[in-house]
Structures are given as C-alpha cells and as structure tokens.
From TrEMBL:
Database matches in Pfam families: Flavin_Reduct
Protein name per Swiss-Prot or TrEMBL: Flavin reductase
GO molecular function, a single term: riboflavin reductase (NADPH) activity
Native organism: Pantoea latae
SMART domains with a match to the protein in the record: Flavin_Reduct (SM00903)
Length: 306
C-alpha cells in the first residue's frame, strides 16, 4: 500500500476509541520486556482468551512470539507517562516504572487499572503484524478509570468530565453496582441515587467524599448521564463507579443494596432518574453502556465504543 494510503488507513482506524495497554514478558535471558499497544481485545470467556497484536518490525518480536507467558496491563488514566515510556526507545524502561512479578514471573505494572497474566496459547500471522492469543491464568482489576486513546491522542474519561460542567448548581450522583444490586437511598418512601451538591472543591472531590460517606470501596469511572433540570436551574452529573473484581456487597454507612430486578417497582419521583435507572438495568444485563446528554425531558444517548 502507498505511504499516503497507509497513513489515511491509520487515521481511519484511529476513529475507533480504545484503551491503552502495556504488554510485558521476559526475554530469553530472563530480563523484563514490554511495549505499548492499543490493539487489545477479549476473545473468549470459556476458555478465557484474549489477544493483542505486535508489529513484526518490533525488536522484541521473536521474544514475544516464542515466550511461554506474557501479561497485558491496562493502564490507568494517570499512566500517560508509562505509555510513553514503553512506546519509545528507552534504554531500561522498567527502571522508570514500579512493577512486580506475577506467580509466573511475568512483569506486572503497579497502578494499572487491570492486568491479565497469560500463557501463550497461539500465534497467528496477520500481515505486517502477528496476533498473540493468550490463555488467561490470572487477572485482577482495581476498578480505576482507564487511559483512553482516540485519533492519536490520550483522553481520560473521568478527569475530562470536569470540562463538561458549567458550575451553576451541580449535583453529583454515584451509580454503583455489585452482583446485580445497586446502591439506592430511600427517604420518605422515595428512592434516589446517593447524591451530593458541589459546594467547595471540585466535582471529583465531591464524588470522592460521597463514596467515602457510603463506606464502599468504589472508584470513579465515567460519566453515565449529564442533564440539566431547567426548572430548578440545576445540573445533574451521574458517574458510573466501579468496584474491584473480587468485591462483595459489604455493609454500607448510608443507603442500601437493592436488587436491579426490583428497581422498576421502586417509587422514584424524579422521572429523569427513573428513566436513567431503567436504562441502566437494560445495559447492565449486556455489559454495554451509553451516556445521556440533555435536560430532564429531552436528550440524546450516545453509545460508547465497545
């Protein structure tokens, strides 16, 4: 393909929003190696398989295609520098980051949003790249927001949410789900999401304080809904918050865990919130979420990239 066409194709591929990962392993001398990749996807749950692609021009191509194990580290939104380190020709990349070995000895990067420790299951030739298919032998998720990549630039879903807020009257809500249950607050017979008004400090400070009040080990994820109530001159920001992989429904300081299947039967006076929760129940069942922009009556729903 001609050089200009290759660039145009690369730009077209870049229209698809992805996460950012660092793929790690050890070379034949036992030294840690790694590279940045956004060509990562899950393949199968049973058996647990994933894949990532590697350029045949990579200096570590032979090491990764012949290794016994490799790991995929999904970077958190604070790890832009880590992504840049592993995307550039740095003498000793691992001296610049904190990491530890898995049970298989595979390097795992500290602070990652999630990691998957894999046995090399299959190598598939794919043009100027090869596909590394890994069989997942261990994994963990810290439920922190991941680092995004779109059209050649990084984006951070949670931190960038600050730019959406006009600072009139802002109410922040936390939507937290665990094993088919969500945290709701019931007051005078009416149910609502745990919420807090932004007064002093930032939206992120307010959300973190709200989560602390609930007494749950959740972390801010991404904006699930942002809408203005024109009658009350208030802006509502609902964050979908995440829990660690092994989380259970622990006792709460405030609110209670309610079965999602019973959400529709709750008395929710705010019609916009009732619509939001019904949408969440549907989307949670398939694990594919969207974001709502608008007001309390009309708006649009945009699907996230899968």
């Amino acid at each position: 393909m001609q050089t200009d066409k290759r660039r145009q194709l690369r730009d077209a591929f870049g229209a698809f929003m992805t996460g950012v990962t660092v793929v790690t392993s050890r070379d034949k001398a036992g030294q840690p190696i790694g590279f940045t990749a956004n060509s990562f996807t899950s393949v199968s749950l049973d058996p647990a398989l994933l894949l990532v692609s590697i350029d045949k021009r990579s200096a570590n191509f032979a090491n990764f295609t012949e290794c016994s194990h490799f790991a995929v580290n999904i970077l958190a939104e604070q790890q832009k520098e880590t992504s840049n380190i592993f995307a550039s020709k740095v003498e000793d990349r691992f001296a610049l980051v904190a990491w530890h070995g898995s049970e298989n000895g595979t390097p795992l990067l500290d602070g990652s949003s999630a990691w998957f420790d894999c046995a090399l299951h299959q190598v598939v030739d794919a043009g100027d790249h090869a596909l590394l298919i890994g069989r997942v032998e261990g994994f963990d998720s810290q439920a922190t927001a991941g680092l995004g990549y779109y059209r050649g630039a990084y984006f951070t879903p949670y931190q960038n949410a600050e730019t959406l807020i006009n600072r009139l009257r802002v109410e922040v809500s936390a939507l937290i789900e665990c094993n088919g249950h969500a945290i709701m607050v019931q007051n005078a017979g009416a149910a609502s999401l745990p919420s807090r008004h932004v007064t002093d400090g930032s939206v992120s400070d307010t959300l973190n304080a709200l989560i602390a009040e609930l007494g749950v080990n959740a972390t801010p994820g991404f904006v699930y809904s942002i809408y203005e109530d024109r009658q009350s001159n208030k802006q509502h920001i609902v964050f979908l918050c995440a829990l660690p992989t092994d989380a259970t429904r622990a006792a709460l300081k405030q609110g209670e865990w309610l079965d999602l299947e019973k959400i529709s039967a709750l008395s929710i006076k705010d019609s916009a919130l009732k619509s939001l929760m019904n949408r969440f129940v549907r989307e949670n069942s398939v694990g594919n979420y969207s974001i709502y922009y608008g007001d309390e009556i009309n708006g649009s729903i945009k699907q996230f990239a899968s």
